[in-house]
Design goal:
Elements: H1 3-15, H2 20-27, H3 31-38, H4 46-56, H5 60-63, H6 70-81, E1 88-89, H7 90-108, E2 117-120, E3 123-126, H8 129-138, E4 142-147, E5 150-155, H9 166-179, H10 184-192, H11 195-198
Antiparallel strand pairs: 1-5, 2-3, 4-5
Helix pairs in contact: 2-3, 7-9, 7-10
């Protein structure tokens, strides 16, 4: 289990003034077993997390909250831009970032950037997406061109990607390779058919944990 889940649970335990033994009783395990979980020697099971969610009266998604890494998000943003020779539509870029983060969570129980996504009319969008885009444009690091009804974003400077691991880059490439030559409307429609978007209302934050309910072949590409 990734460390931030353990950290979130330990913070809840301490904020409620509970001992490790008391939490172990809630889970129906021994204190030693609980200590082994917090030390990374064992994992929380899905039923463990459901019990803790109910016990602390918090959404299970709160147990998965991880620190936001906006700098890494920006590097993901630039890496995607560099995969498109003629620029990428702004809406399509927003959806690619969503699919990369959520499919990463599906596979690793940890998103790539940790930023939060909001349900919008045209699909999920990172809450920092527009802020990052405006900042990069004002600093002259990207160009934004109009093409019909779309805004095309192109890089105008180089950007380091040192926060992206080889596995990160491989994962980004898998998602981009699938959607690279498809129309923006197709990726928007796909995100509308996924459980995370369907389960939330406009303006709500979308819990990463909702993607776990998705069919394995429908996480970042349509079922074939």
């Amino acid at each position: 289990m990734v460390s931030y889940v353990v950290n979130n649970i330990e913070k809840l335990r301490k904020s409620h003034g509970l001992t490790q033994e008391q939490i172990a009783e809630v889970l129906g395990v021994s204190r030693i077993t609980y200590i082994n979980i917090t030390n990374g020697k064992r994992d929380f099971t899905t039923s463990n997390l459901e019990r803790l969610s109910e016990y602390f009266d918090v959404p299970i998604s709160e147990l998965f909250d991880q620190p936001r890494n906006v700098e890494k998000f920006q590097q993901m943003y630039f890496y995607i831009l560099n995969r498109f020779k003629d620029g990428v539509p702004k809406t399509k870029l927003a959806k690619l970032l969503y699919l990369i983060d959520f499919s990463s969570f599906y596979e690793n129980l940890e998103s790539m950037s940790g930023v939060r996504y909001v349900r919008r009319e045209y699909g999920p969008v990172a809450d920092v997406f527009f802020e990052v885009t405006d900042d990069l444009f004002e600093k002259g690091k990207i160009n934004i061109e109009t093409k019909g009804d779309a805004f095309l974003i192109k890089p105008s400077s180089k950007q380091e990607t040192h926060l992206l691991s080889d596995d990160d880059i491989s994962h980004i490439n898998r998602v981009v390779d699938y959607w690279k030559d498809k129309r923006t409307g197709e990726i928007v429609n796909f995100t509308h058919e996924q459980k995370p978007w369907k389960a939330c209302r406009d303006g709500e934050y979308i819990p990463y944990s909702l993607i776990i309910q998705e069919e394995p072949d429908h996480v970042f590409a349509p079922i074939t």
